Amino acid sequence: MVGDRTLAYLEVAPAQPRAHVLFLSWLGGSRLGWADVVRELGQDYRALAPDHRDTGDSEACADAFTLADLADDAAAFLRAVAAAPAFVVGLSMGGMVAQHLALRHPELVRGLVLVATTPGGRASTPATERGRAALFLPAELPAPERARQALTLMTHPGFTEAHPGALAQAAANAERHPMSAESFRRQFQAIRAHDTTAGLARIQAPTLVLHGEHDDLIPLSNAERLAAGIPGAGLRVYPGTGHMPHLERPADFLRDLRGFLETHG
């Protein structure tokens, strides 16, 4: 229980973890999308991946919410499982939630890894036509097929053809955790209102920004603005990579994540 809300989560940890690491998921995604990274990192760290409210196996929610609300959920979760302060890794919407978490609950955040995300606001560079197509797939598509098409459009061209296992896993995750059109709409509306531009300079946690060079959903210029706005933030750009660096460049992603944790742990 997190307050009066129930959140499901995945946890992998050794007997003597080096630190706590919280993974926050993207629009339409659940904790299952982080499973491989959590298993790998959980060899040395206490790795935790919760489902956001109204997502996966967490409690359903019919009311509108903001990304700040999801950040407060994450803060309550960290306290409930005695995992604070934590390194927070967020991808896309999860990275937006991580920014709000660092601004609203700085004492809970030991470091930030912001992946394929944006500070939002008027200066944002919008998605390309290919990126928009990933967001607005026909609602009547079965969840597994929608997940396959979305992953194909979000990753760099040719990735899913070369990695059919990633397609199969995305479809299996969506079949286990299908998201209703209403739930997707609530997350999307929360993202549209996201803007941390004015607060970036107040983020004091060590920060690493990771982004694909050819991200069609959240173009690279958004990451550059994010890294420029957070004091001392580093930026690592993956060439030939789209919106899902942890899938498209898993070895590089884990190397950079581990390096950051070791430097600031």
UniProtKB/TrEMBL annotation:
The molecular function terms in GO held by this entry are:
catalytic activity
Q: Supply one GO CC term from the record.
A: membrane
Domain called AB hydrolase-1: residue spans:
20-250
Organism whose genome encodes this protein:
Deinococcus budaensis
The highest taxon in the source lineage is Bacteria
Protein name per its UniProtKB record: Pimeloyl-ACP methyl ester carboxylesterase
